[in-house]
Structures
1.
Amino acid sequence: MGVTNDYRKREESITMSSEPLAEGPTHELLTLNIGPHHPATHGVLRLIATLEGEIVRDIQPIIGYVHTGIEKTCEQKQYWKVIPCIERMDYLSYYFNAMAFCGAVESLLEVEVPPRAQYLRVIHLELNRIMSHLVWLGTSALDLGAVSMFWYCFRERETILDLFEMSSGQRMHTRYIQVGGVFEDIPVGFAEKVRKFVREMPARADQYAALLEKNEIVLARLRNTCKLDEPTLLSLGVTGPLLRAAGNPWDLRKAAPYSSYDHFDFKIPVGTVGDNYDRYRVRHAELYESTKIIEQALDGLPEGPFITPDRKVALPPRHELATSMEALIHHFKLVTEGFRVPPGEAYYPIEGPRGELGCFVRSDGSAKPARVHMRDPSFVNLQATAPMVKDAYIADLIATLAMLDPILGGIDR
């Protein structure tokens, strides 16, 4: 009871600052709660907005409503058991969550991931990026009143989830990326189905553009609204499509390549104005680039193992368990005790759908991490909400929040 009262006192002590008008009498300011269950907030987010009529003078995001303690939970689990837990953080980027964590652990173990596993990771990461962008585009268009776009985007999303189910057995939270490689090699027919999808996807993206970019309402809602310049974005630590929309081409797939991204030819879409329209255009253009990467990865997919041969890290093949006592021992030890990681620290950043997603892991030499911390882009990018929407209309606030693409599971963790 005392904790609840303390929280309420802190909640009520929040003061909203607003600049007085340059001239004329001081108008009455209204404090309005948006959320925490408003359907246009893309999760359980609460916004305390200070309004002057329909104009937003200040805004304060209040987070923590879906706090799950995932990082702390990871510290109580063996390394290989962390993966299904951490995938549920940003629930639209589960492959990226697993990739960041596995990359940090592999850095500490100094495990070499086979080339085939690297390519398979890229294929699934880029499919996941397309899927995440489709959910963003469908829900953002819904916020603007374009109801049919939601169904069109989810049509392609379902196709991607079918592919995930084919390769891993699960549509979401697949646990496909493992320390040292991937869970299993792709099944027969998977590559052909992926090729069919990447052939169709550019035409689907053209349809999205035809529906939205000639719509006067959409253009009026997005063009020249809620601009934010590159220096301000950099000072706030903003990354991903929001930063690229302001003209900065920073993308970790090019700036600090990982998992064989340096083997592929693709472009980094950037904007010029840094408004909501540029934010939409950058993400839309990334749909095309991701299909190019997937196609190149399929064309150049190397032969070889899909996971490291180090049996102290990876489970031995199941067919060996009946004939090899050593394989049986390794399997038993890994399942019951896990593998030990040498003491040390590692930070592994990757380019997620919303920006730089990084994982920090500290090891004390045991089979469980001593510390796990995620640098989630949604959490950092949320800081940009207030400067973006200052002196804009409430309607622009809703559109801007959609263009931010925040995932509250990743923000609260």
2.
Amino acid sequence: MAGEDQVVRRRGYRGSVRVAAVLGVVVALACACSRTPEQPRAGGAKQLTIWLTGYSWQDNTPPGSSTVGEPVLHKEAGGQGTFQDPITVAVPGHQGNMAWQPGTKFYLPSVQRYVIVEDSGAAKQPAGTDTHLDMWIDGQSGTKQATDDCENTFTGRVPAQVDPPDNLPVMAGPIFANQKCNVPPQAADMGTYKDSGSGDGDSGGSDSGGDSGGGHHHHGHQGNSDSGDGGGDH
């Protein structure tokens, strides 16, 4: 009897283990089914294709200044390009009717800088791009020709992220400093403003680098063409 009793107990134990295991699977499946699908994070980074240009001390308005129209982090155009200290950019439109709100941040992988909207009056973006960002390069110690050449180096159709995370690669520092254009190697052909299909009068003018409309574009009053010496509206 003792042996039979032990066999019964063992069978009862094994049966309990099996029942518990089955119940565990059922509970796990029920939890999995009741779980709501993970939703994308609101306000996450959005990928854009932008038209990127630059402006400097030499072609700001007024020339020889770092004045901006919509200061947020900086009283005057500036920044190191880090997430905490992004570089000033101008966007299309004017005060009260800007393409992006002051304080909007972007990340530009082609120059490895974070930038922030603190200025207005940039030309309308060409067809095939989502927006136009005109980036402050500094260049106070450089010549007009040197800063123009630097701007032309990175001008074109490039990727960007709006509302980016804070951990992307950065080449910190002004775009133009110590007589040098501080950007990574650029793509061979990033397109030109003219080739991008823009046909309106608010094109920001032709570049001074002589590359058939592919250079930088200064800020100008809507409908006016810029000759390369300012004329911006901040």
3.
Amino acid sequence: MSTIRIGDLAVNRLGLGAMRVIDNDDIWGEPKDRANSLKVLRRAVELGIDFFDTAESYGPQTSETLIAEALYPYPRGFVVATKCGLARPGPGRWDADCRPEKLRKDLEGSLRRLKLERIDLYQLHTVDPKVPLEVSVGTLADMQREGKVRHVGLSNVTVRELEKARKIVTIVSVQNRYSLADRKSEDVLLYCEKHGIAFLPWYPLGDGSVLTLSRVKKLAAKVGATPAQIAIAWLLKKSPVMLPIPGTSKIAHLEENVGAVRLNLGEEDFSSL
């Protein structure tokens, strides 16, 4: 795989979104098949993935625990990125809570569960309308100065919010929803390109609807790939700052996704999408 820089880190350009290793619709509690979830995480590393994206809210806390159980002590060069700022009072609930005390509690828990002294990439999961962004981002900046966070990232932000945050602390990554079929964050992606900020598209295959697009299926048949591989290859070609993080609970899907890095879409094929 080719590599991408996140601050002073260099990782391969296909990561793993570790939410779906909790293989239930609500991303709540334990996975139905814990042994399989651990196998998926280990297989990802075997396939060359050295960047995992997770969050305190996945489970909550379960995804981080599984990552450490599967891989600690971590391979050299392996990067775990995690996120803070969402509360999970129950299944199906994802409530913004970016109060400084919540963010600090999230960080301490993540450090403990991941068995780390410092998080390489710590991301604010969302913008909390009840808490000024300057306060939330300022808290992450404080954590960085304390040596508990290496780099700071944002998720689910606008260009204006990104600019505001960058006045407080260096932002090395942005994680927004983006896929071949959902390009509402195009302006954020262009901003990241201009300023050398890594862009992590979450939901890179959408709800599966991307895979049913006629133009995607047509191109997949033409080049001998699967629709998922076409969708990921399109993201990789779309921008040099793009770091897709597709998630799955199945080894077969994981191996299929990794196969996308071998596709090199020509300009005509790329434009057709």
4.
Amino acid sequence: MENKRKTKDYNPTKCGVTHFLNKIGGKWKVLVIYAISKKCNRFSLLQRAIPDISKQMLVNQLRELEEDGILERTIYAEIPPRVEYKITKHGMTLMPVIEVIQNWGLKDLKQMAK
């Protein structure tokens, strides 16, 4: 049985923001992409980098990001098998957006600490 995402194709007005949120919205996807960009490219490293995400949720987010062409999964034929993730060329176009989010968050944290 195929796992269908509820909001993947919901965009009745062809809105760019809605399309963006359908691709990487939610609590975890931006964190997963950011962690992979910082060389957390294996499942166990991602679990350590994002400790509050469940194993199943991480699997789901990685699959969706791969399905959307944002991540690429490479399986190495070793014993034990090794799987690594990297951001695709298409996914790299998100990095300027994620950097702006990161900078805004850091500035807001500093302001809240005052």
